[in-house]
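Homework help board

Subject: predicted structure for assignment chain

Our instructor gave us this sequence and asked us to write out the predicted structure in token form, then describe one feature. I got the tokens but I'm not sure how to describe them. Can anyone check?
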Amino acid sequence: MQSNSSMRTPLGRVRGLGSAKSGTGHFWLQRLTAVANVILTVIFVFVVVALVGKPYPAAMALLTQPCVAILMLLFILSACVHMRIGMQVIIEDYVHEEGVKILAVMANTFFAIAVGAASVYAVLKLSFGG
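My token output:
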């Protein structure tokens, strides 16, 4: 027998979705990027350690290798997505005024895009010998 203590609408119960309908997707994307970040951060640290004390041409030579450049781009993408989702959760949990919350989420998204774009540009510039 159906309990009347559920706060969900009948349509919500049928679809199995929460009120925002995107929380589960964000939850899994956050976990996926976290796992990817563990692997990609280790690779990033190895690349940085390999370049310690080396001149700029050595960094360019390493980053012109397609495998290294692709791994650095994946690191940037994963880290920026993870950063944006994590900060969005913090904003949604702790900013209570709706207008400020919307502006903060928008600013967070623009910031993540700007950081990602600048980082991708730098890697591509180095990778293609700029």
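Reply (TA_rk): Your tokens look well-formed. For the description, you could write something like this. The chain has five helices and no strands. That's the kind of observation they're looking for.
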